[in-house]
Amino acid sequence: MRVREKDDRGVVQSVVLFLGVSVLSGALAAGLAIPFAGLAGFTTEKTSETLQDLPQQFDEVPLKQKSTILAADGSVIATLAEQNRVPVKLSQVAPIMQKAMVAIEDDRFYEHGALDLKGTLRALLRNQSEGAVQQGGSSITQQYVKMSLVEKANTPDEVAAATAETYQRKVAELRYAIAVEKEFSKNEILEKYLNLANFGDGAWGIEAASLHYFQVHASQLTLPQAALLAGLVKNPTGYDPTNDMKRAKDRRDVVIRRMLELKVISLSQANSALKSPVVDPAKIRPNKLGCANSKYPFYCEYVVAQLKENKAFGKDQTQAGNYLKTAGLTIRTSLDPKIQAAAQKSINEHSRPTDQAIAAITIVEPGTGLVKAMVQNRTYGNKRGQTSYNLNVEKSYAGGYGGFQNGSTMKAFTIAAAIQKGFPLNYKINSPNQINLSGKKFSTCDGTTSAPSYTPGNSTTNVPVPTMIQAAQRSTNTYFLLLSQQTGLCPIAKIAASLGLYDAQSSSPLNQVVSMTLGVGYVTPVQMASAYAAFAARGMYCKPWLVTAIKGPNGKAINAPGAECKQALAPEVADGVNAVLHSVMETGGTGAKLKFGKSDLAGKTGTITNNEAVWYAGYSSKLSAASVVADASLPYNNLIGQTLDGKKMYDASGSGTAGPLWQTAMEGALRYYPTTKFVAPSDKTVRGDVKDLPFVNGLNPEDAANKIRQAGFEVAIAPGTVNSEETAGTVAYTTPRQREGAPEGSMVTIHISNGSQKNQPSTSTTPPPATTKPPANPPTTINPNCPPWNPKYPNCGGGGR
């Protein structure tokens, strides 16, 4: 107890002089406005209790500093701030600025302690003679304490407590000031004060204020500039030159005259300063804070949304958001301004903000997931032709629109599933222009599914019995529906999920429905570009990666998530997909007109029901992009008849509408990269993991079906008959042909002969002689008309790739 009593006496001794002066003068309250009556009823006992509770030390508040988001090249994307502040050392503040601040706020700052008794009494006398508060009595140290307490406050109630005109707060503030004076030198206190002070119009701290009002650093401030800023601290809003230029000048001139009175400046300096303009409005730098003021607002908001998910920044998104605006971080991102400019050029060339249809493009880097560009035709805002929705990202992110159905771009995942199961790249399926799948069972991860009434057809010119390559080139719907029935929907769903696809509206897995291969759920350009990038990276899928580095205000690195990649597909499977989708951009393919340059390109079109959205997703080994044109306003309508690039659309397709957006963007972006080629698929990938098919030509269909089932295949009998040399009613041939083989468990279709060529010269119905020698040096381009090489039978003079 003796130690406590001794400490209490020390506290009392520290403030007794202040209390004595305060009681005698009635000047205790902030601004010296409370009269003697303000202390009425304050007993000696109560005063003693208050003194015992006085704080013994002052915990310095960390300065709230702005965070900066940078592009990959170091250029500024956006500034996040609750207070626009750039802390500086006192040595980085012009001496005239230091003198101006001391002159107007506390001219005896370097002579007194925590309390300026002389200044307090002088202020008291002036205030009482004027009948109102004209001059404050608080020292710079006391002002610093008060500003710090306000800075620490997190709620309106805490702010009110920190600024309350009460005896208790003023006494506590003084005790804090005493602690500050003991711990820091006068220059350190002035430095902290200058960095903490509010200088109006969103500028906090002397450096931010100098840059804001004059576009100069604090070290370069002139006398009239310094006088203006020094005068602002008393009333940052009232003396703000952007609010009232005359009032700002009057206050500035008060500071200049006070500096002359104190002989800080000469008469000639004062006269010159008084005649100078207050500010040049053209040089006032707007405080463009937040993503809304960014050159890339949608990308910026996507970055911030991802950062808010980082638990290291706060237990929830609100805390993380506050941290981002006050921690003084430097956040480097993946955005490449050159690639972003190429994508924006494409948007500008092929669409307009006022179009009825929306257009959007995302470009990512295969093998890393770096999101290089993200653009859309609707600009940021709430006016006509503007939106706050990011049309490129999922609904789970703030402002994310939530995607569009992806149409036939889903066929790429069916191709991957088929290759993974051993289907040859030249696997044939009889694909009429319309098929009846009503009630047909498709296997799923949980069993089977079917559609009660479903008779889909083709929307493009078709090859009657196409290979996988030909079907991809022409986007043959019936082929891929039948192929997905053979592979099962579960492998397609699993591959799509492993490549980052899920419903962008609900965040749930894509539905395994009969029409899955023709498009399902809602997906976004960033999802599609990232998924296709995995094919380009030979099966390596990387989650979209935006934040590449984070540094604290001291320049020290803060842990940031790096590339998050996994081998989602075997390289040989991805090579096979690349070969098939490469053919889409070759002669005869729906994407042939979009081909450019010397690098290998691959891609796939996508058009959904009623043309409500059209896609083109494609890639080289260096960049992957997805473009979409869609109706984004409920109720969704056919794009035909809506405007794009200011013109009414009379057609809407993946290749003709979304394709040009993709082409212009990628052509501009890829000029910064060397020419690249895809890795050619292996012989095994080309020919597939096939089993021999039994020879059944000429057999009774029922016997043939049993024989095929016994060999491990599924069987279907095609409707109608075909011209054949076999006896009418017997098997003419199968699809796939017997010489081609087929993956185990796949569907084999029996075609019935009509006997129309029975008496014509024919080839033998016995199998051709076998050979086990594979073809030598197969060509790098796959011939879609040539069946794959089979270990048992050679085709096309040795097979083709």
Automatic annotation (TrEMBL):
Keywords: Carboxypeptidase, Cell shape, Cell wall biogenesis/degradation, Glycosyltransferase, Hydrolase, Multifunctional enzyme, Peptidoglycan synthesis, Protease, Transferase
Protein name: Membrane peptidoglycan carboxypeptidase
GO CC annotation: outer membrane-bounded periplasmic space
Region listing for Disordered, in residue ranges: 753-801
Pfam families linked to this entry: PASTA, Transgly, Transpeptidase
Swiss-Prot/TrEMBL GO biological process terms: cell wall organization; peptidoglycan biosynthetic process; proteolysis; regulation of cell shape
Biased composition (Pro residues): 766-778
Reaction(s) the record says it catalyses: [GlcNAc-(1->4)-Mur2Ac(oyl-L-Ala-gamma-D-Glu-L-Lys-D-Ala-D-Ala)](n)-di-trans,octa-cis-undecaprenyl diphosphate + beta-D-GlcNAc-(1->4)-Mur2Ac(oyl-L-Ala-gamma-D-Glu-L-Lys-D-Ala-D-Ala)-di-trans,octa-cis-undecaprenyl diphosphate = [GlcNAc-(1->4)-Mur2Ac(oyl-L-Ala-gamma-D-Glu-L-Lys-D-Ala-D-Ala)](n+1)-di-trans,octa-cis-undecaprenyl diphosphate + di-trans,octa-cis-undecaprenyl diphosphate + H(+); Preferential cleavage: (Ac)2-L-Lys-D-Ala-|-D-Ala. Also transpeptidation of peptidyl-alanyl moieties that are N-acyl substituents of D-alanine
Record bears the keyword Protease: yes
